[in-house]
Design goal:
By secondary structure, the protein is an alpha/beta fold. Helices cover 38% and strands 19% of the residues. The termini are far apart. Keywords: Signal.
Length: 257
């Protein structure tokens, strides 16, 4: 366990990171955007999660930790290589979630680079272009040094929690709403979706397993499909993270530029 001094240092480091290494994406699109993302990529997310999106013609982003391949997490089976290839073939996006699913805020620069290199190599074997990789911090644990390194390596980096993006997004610290079986965020999905529609913002949601019953970090297939349908019915674009960035960049420049 970190001592009190280490905890204080981490808090200071994270506070500094909030203001450093920003890459601002103005949000000026005609409609709101919703991105559905899956952390750790349990096997159920590869099947039921992907199907919930595909039934509505949508695709998602699956943040993969190569070290979890064919393993168990929270008692749930994780993805196989074949399932990841199936996701890619169906048009879904694979992102990076470190290799060992380890907190990035306490690693040295060399340790973090090694983790990211190892996962990049794993994803490259599956056919993922390392130049278009997006990242999600395991446990949402980021800090100054981690953000500095990840800002140079990834098209975007995602934290955990924080709600929807309005007016702009920091691509190096993207926020999420957690679609978990146990409600953990201050506002619910429906409220954030309405705000995303009204402000033409970008709402990124994340979950883990997709089954019934789900783990405390997961969501049922029925509720996930309802969330996808609600976003589309509200007039939002439902896009994976890479496609969302591409779409939003089309509108990012001022009209008089």
């Amino acid at each position: 366990m970190p001592d009190s001094a280490s905890k204080l240092a981490l808090r200071i480091s994270r506070r500094l990171a909030q203001h450093a290494f920003k890459e601002i994406l103005p949000l000026r699109a005609d409609v709101g955007v919703v991105s559905f993302t899956f952390d750790d990529v349990p096997a159920s997310a590869c099947v039921a999660g992907a199907q919930a999106l595909e039934r509505h013609g949508a695709r998602g982003t699956f943040y993969v930790a190569g070290g979890l391949t064919d393993a168990l997490e929270e008692g749930k089976p994780c993805h196989s290589r074949e399932q990841l290839r199936t996701l890619l073939a169906a048009g879904h996006e694979l992102g990076c979630h470190s290799y060992s699913h380890i907190r990035c805020d306490t690693l040295t620069a060399a340790e973090l680079e090694q983790e990211l290199d190892r996962n990049a190599a794993f994803l490259a074997e599956l056919g993922v272009d390392p130049l278009t990789l997006n990242f999600a911090y395991p446990f949402g644990a980021y800090a100054y040094n981690a953000k500095r390194i990840c800002s140079k390596r990834f098209r975007s980096s995602r934290i955990t929690g924080g709600g929807t993006h309005e007016d702009y997004a920091d691509l190096n610290a993207l926020k999420t709403h957690r679609l978990y079986d146990v409600h953990v965020d201050a506002e619910n999905y429906d409220t954030l979706l309405q705000r995303t529609v009204r402000r033409k913002g970008w709402l990124i949601v994340n979950t883990h397993d997709v089954e019934d019953p789900p783990s405390r970090y997961g969501f049922t297939p029925e509720r996930l499909e309802q969330a996808v349908a609600a976003a589309l019915a509200a007039g939002c674009k439902v896009l994976p993270v890479n496609a969302a960035i591409d779409y939003l960049l089309q509108y990012a420049a001022p009209a008089d530029a």
